[in-house]
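Hypothesis: this fold can be encoded by more than one sequence.
Test: take the structure tokens below, design a sequence, compare later.
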């Protein structure tokens, strides 16, 4: 049977992102973290240990919604933001947004966002390697340096959309970056901007709200309103009304050392979740319908897992 390896962990990460198997990521995180602590690699092979630890951090990012303490979020954004960006198709803001939606108190959301904003402002984590751009004087490379450049060019208040577009297009620093590095900067800017906007404002309110006006149905999302079909509304309502048993997310992971770390197949008996996740494929990822359905699916999955944890503790 294959031993734990970097290739196996990368396969696990790719699988989690493709299937949104956040429980699998959480269980894998705990298993690999415990294995690494017992391995003795920190002393015997520090470089190898560091590589494995990077994968532990990536798994924590993927299962972020299973952590409730703001310090976990703060630590990841301050010290490991660049690792999150190494994972293709991983949406860090979606994880943060799900956590915010779970907070009913809007003031608590703003406090949470303010702490994460502070984490980025104080981060010494490297975003860009200056070695790739020799001869470019003053190029920011740390997270905190890019944040300072955002503020210097866009101001300390809410970023103006037009000014932001001009900054991305005309910044002397962004102009020299490769496409991949430019995307990293734009992604950081997007998250930092969202963290600065109060949840008490239309743009900052994280919940997707369904409303009806003159017999027509709409979704309100971050200050934007889009008309949707009755079918979409029913799908969203099905998720909100879903009531699953505590074992809805059963342990799907194989022990370390077996061929697969996480579930070999997607969880099958999640109706109505399975049907809703299938319906999700009918909408483009950037559509409000897709965002609304996915938001509710993730919220329900996390709630079910946490309920299962409480039930197990009582036993």
């Amino acid at each position: 049977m294959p031993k734990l390896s970097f290739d196996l962990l990368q396969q696990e990460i790719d699988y989690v992102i493709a299937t949104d198997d956040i429980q699998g990521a959480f269980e894998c995180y705990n298993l690999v973290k415990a294995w690494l602590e017992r391995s003795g690699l920190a002393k015997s092979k520090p470089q190898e240990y560091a590589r494995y630890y990077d994968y532990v951090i990536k798994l924590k990012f993927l299962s972020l919604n299973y952590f409730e303490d703001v310090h976990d979020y703060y630590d990841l954004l301050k010290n490991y933001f660049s690792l999150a960006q190494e994972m293709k198709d991983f949406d860090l803001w979606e994880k943060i947004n799900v956590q915010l939606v779970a907070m009913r108190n809007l003031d608590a959301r703003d406090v949470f966002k303010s702490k994460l904003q502070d984490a980025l402002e104080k981060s010494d984590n490297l975003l860009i390697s200056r070695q790739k751009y020799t001869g470019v004087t003053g190029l920011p490379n740390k997270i905190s340096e890019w944040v300072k450049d955002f503020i210097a060019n866009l101001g300390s208040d809410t970023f103006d959309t037009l000014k932001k577009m001009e900054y991305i297009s005309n910044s002397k620093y962004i102009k020299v970056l490769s496409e991949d590095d430019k995307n990293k900067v734009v992604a950081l800017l997007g998250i930092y901007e969202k963290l600065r906007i109060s949840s008490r404002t239309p743009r900052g309110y994280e919940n997707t709200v369904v409303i009806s006006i003159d017999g027509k149905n709409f979704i309100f999302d971050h200050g934007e309103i889009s008309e949707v079909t009755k079918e979409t509304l029913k799908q969203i309502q099905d998720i909100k009304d879903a009531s699953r048993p505590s074992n809805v997310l059963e342990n799907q992971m194989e022990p370390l050392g077996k061929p697969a770390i996480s579930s070999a197949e997607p969880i099958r008996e999640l109706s109505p979740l399975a049907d809703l996740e299938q319906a999700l494929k009918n909408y483009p990822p950037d559509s409000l319908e897709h965002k609304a359905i996915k938001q509710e699916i993730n919220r329900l999955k996390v709630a079910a897992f946490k309920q299962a944890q409480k039930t197990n503790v009582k036993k």
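Residues 143 and 178 are 17 Å apart (CA to CA). The first helix runs from residue 6 to 19.
Hypothesis status: open.
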